[in-house]
Amino acid sequence: MMVTFAFPLYFKNVICAGNPSGDAIWGACISISMLMVALISPVLGAQADYSGRRKRFLFFFTLMSVVATALLSLSGPGSALPAALVFMVANIGFEGGLVFYDAYLPEITSRRSLGRVSGYGFAMGYLGAFAILLLLKPLLSKGIVASNMHNLQLGFLVVALFFALFATPLFLTLRDTRGVRRAPDISPDRQGASISRSVAEVAHTVRHIMGYPDLARFLLAYFFYNDAILTVIAFSSIYAQNTLGFTTGDLIAFFMAVQTTAILGSVVFGFVTDRIGPKRTIVITLFIWFAVIFMAILSQGKTLFYITGLVAGMSMGSSQAASRSLMARLTPKEHITEFFGFYDGTFGKASAVVGPLVFGLVSSQAGSQKLALASLLIFFGTGLIIMTGVRTSTTVSDLVDL
Question: CA spacing 20 to 30 A to 384: which of 55, 226, 315, 399?
């Protein structure tokens, strides 16, 4: 609702009154907020590990996102800068919270079922997206236009409450117990030294990763192709409405269909990954993404774009699942938490910085969203070329096998 569908259109059509500069501002919002998370999350993650207060960090970021999302219900025409700043706070809260949320996975399941439980998590996320669209369909039925502003503002408030409601069970049930490194001297007067130690650990992680060239090569490939995937997610609704003339009703049906195929993709390609390996699966999904971009550019009407969305949904879930699996295969056991924190917290967030900025600038300057979409082929192509150089059969004997 807030990153992919309703609020991007509200920001472009209502807050920015349809001005093409809205694309550039929206792209900057995504890029800056993700860059901030990429910069702070490794240090905060290490700090949370040392202090044993992971849930407290997660609660802070969740509350930040919920409150900022609720405040976006007050935004309206002419409030581009305040709305952009509040959205960035909301997105930093959400994406920053995911760093601590993901770190609970090894604590709530066995190592043998990590991949399966992670896949269930992705599927439930897509189901949640389906549910909120269905819940808010009556408020969106009159369109994402200025005349329907009050219903849309109410919808954003409902989103905040929805998020708070379904986050609550986690804080009531999970505890920081297993797998947390507690430093004996982390008291309020020692926080400066603790933060310095966290920064040193991040630098240490980077040096460790460079000692595994195939892992470093994969992370670089992931940076490029994930950047393109996240850009597609951020601009898909704006592209569908402004370039192809989708109505709000069309978009609701479109995104519900995309969520359905994304759920299927997460499950089906999970079996494919086990059969042929994650590297080959990623290469297959990247070729699918090439097809998705070309199909979207060639779309003149709604039918072909609907088909494009279904294919994109299938490859979206599979790309995420296969990437996580390959990361696990390339990571030595003794560095699993350290390297995954870097994968999720740094590369996962930093890889959403360049693409949205490039898309927004190209769209704004050239006046063509199709040209902006074509620019993403560079990101997918670069990721594919680098990925072909990743060797998965020469890893050390103690690699993690999910």
Answer: 399
Closest Cα partner for 330 from 345, 342, 314? 342
Q: What are phi and psi of 399, to 5 degrees?
A: -70, 155
Per-residue pLDDT tens digits for 294-352 = 998 998 878 888 899 899 888 887 887 788 778 877 877 666 656 766 777 677 777 77
For residues 286 and 239, the answer to whether their CB atoms sit within 8 Å is no
**69 vs 2: CA distance, rounded Å:** 8
Nearest to 274 by CA among 340, 322, 311, 343: 322
Q: Name which of 373, 237, 228 is nearest 295 in CA terms.
A: 373
Those residues with Cβ within 8 angstroms of residue 388's Cβ, 6 or more apart along the chain or in another chain = 283
Could you give the 3-state DSSP secondary structure of residue 375? Answer: coil
Average pLDDT on 365-370 reads 82
Query: In this structure, which topology does domain 6-173+202-387 adopt according to CATH?
Result: Growth Hormone; Chain: A; (1.20.1250)
Check residues 244 and 87 and name the one with the higher pLDDT.
Answer: 87
Cα gap 120→100, rounded to integer Å: 18
- What's the CA gap between 90 and 70, in Å, rounded? 9
DSSP H helices, 52-146, are 54-71, 80-102, 105-108, 114-140
Q: What is the tally of helices (H) and strands (E) in the chain?
A: 17, 0
Tens digits of per-residue pLDDT, 17-28?
888 788 889 888
* pLDDT of the residue at 288: 93
Q: What is the pLDDT of residues 322-335, one digit of tens each?
A: 887 788 778 776 66
Q: Which of 55-59, 69-73, 325-329 has the lowest mean pLDDT?
A: 325-329
State both tokens at 277.
């390996």
Q: How far is CA 95 from CA 25, 81, 90, 328, 349, in A?
A: 19, 21, 9, 21, 8
Which residues, 6+ apart, have CB-to-CB distance to 378 below 8 Å? none
d(CA 37, CA 347): 10
CA dist., res. 81 & res. 297, Å (int)? 31
Q: Which residue has the tokens 């797998």?
A: 179
